[in-house]
Amino acid sequence: MLPGMTGPICLENSRLSREFFARPTLEVARDLIGRLLVRSQGGRRRSGIIVECEAYVGEADTACHASRGLTPRTRIMYGPPGHAYVYFTYGMHWMLNAVTEPDGIPGAVLLRALEPVEDIDGIRAARQGRSDRELTSGPARLCAAFSIDGSLNGTDFVLGTDLAIEEGRRVPRTAIARGPRIGIGYAAPKDRRAPWRFWIEGNPFVSRGQPPGN
DNA sequence: CAGACGATTGCCT
DNA sequence: GGCAATCGTCTGT
Fold it and tell me: Out of A17, A31, A71, A207, which residue is the most buried by the measure of CB atoms under 10 Å away?
């Protein structure tokens, strides 16, 4: 158990359903806080509690990749809910999203930080030289820690074998903070200001990014 | 087809 | 605190 862990986890192996993801993106984002992301590989499970995420809400959201419409990259976001949208950025980093909304309507939740739970040694091995705090406290860090790359783009969280999101830990509504999203200075002011980032207040594994100014 | 830039990170001063 | 890394995606010619 890592220092800073905030509570027990119910490992009942119950995956979230298709219907969970087929809802408005903001509701899904808020409800993903406290859930368990599971990466299965070679018969082993690496997992972590989702402690920070952000909603990207369709074509009208200028921070969302879907604001430029349906392209080869955004195809998965337009598809059925409950699938992984994995994309490459800054020439070196992978990002993991969960697709939301009914089939045909684009939306996704970016997973920004996890609290490591299962196979912490495997996670450390994938993040050599990093402190425990730095293992999964950022969207690219958690992908590196869980060996997630473009080969997992489009895989299914509900029925797939590589990735799953399970029930995890119940987090009281009052423990969830919200505020502007990080790293979207390119977006319109209304979208820069929108409080669509969610995190567990005080959790030590939340990322250190700074939200954009107005 | 050239050019700009990114839902970030880690190293440096 | 500043800034380089590094390449896929998208835009406009």
Answer: A207
